[in-house]
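Practice record 12: protein with 2'-O-acetyl adenosine-5-diphosphoribose.
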Amino acid sequence: MKIVILTGAGVSAESGLGTFRDKNGLWTRYDLNEVATPEGFARDPAKVHAFYNARRRNAVEAEPNAAHDALATLQREFRGEVVIVTQNVDGLHEAAGADALHMHGALSGARCAACHATWGAPLFMSPTDLCPSCGASSTRPDIVWFGEMPMHMEVIQSHLNEAGLFAAIGTSGEVYPAAGFVMEALRAGADTVEINLEPSGSAGLFHRRLIGPASEVVPRWVDELLSP
Ligand code: OAD
Ligand code: ZN
């Protein structure tokens, strides 16, 4: 059986990285139109770089929590394929030893808006950085902004079509296309489970809801899947 797991900011919350829509979330403190759109970047690249530089610094200092560890164990030990798709731009799944498809990009990456080359981001990016490939000064974080196409959509789609079990962990289900994955999985005949601190707006689409902090609920769920 193939398990497809979608993770969101809630899986990294207990590693000290903020979520977006909770009270004190990033989108209550920052205007997403200013820092997470191509238009905002065109208006004020220094502001956008400062936002992602701060998040990159937080992310490199963060450690994976028990939820990331358990998902890495599941991917290693489950007798079937475990695909982790994350909306998160931190590297905590990888730090725990898992492979994840980063549909919203990664803080560890930089990209040239002129020639589309990608390379490892320095800790601090600046509007005056030059592309190592073409020399243009149009470098940006390799992150998907609102209004842009998420990454790896074809391969994610094909995994969803083959899913026997779909889990959404720590995501509010407010942002498409990720919010629509549960519908795709249901269409493929998958069982669906939501793991979240509280039922999300789309909780009704899941066969099962496991409510509580990811660091406690995910290890229990993984134990259940791995027990013979
Ligand atoms: P949100 O901030 O929208 O949702 C976080 C979810 O995690 C909420 O449903 C919380 O209840 C839940 N949560 C918080 N702490 C938790 C914990 N300890 N254990 C389990 N669940 C917990 O974040 P995302 O759904 O990831 O995109 O947001 C999706 C996208 O919107 C992000 O990738 C980002 C953002 O705008 C872009 O920047 C393109
Ligand atoms: Zn370039």
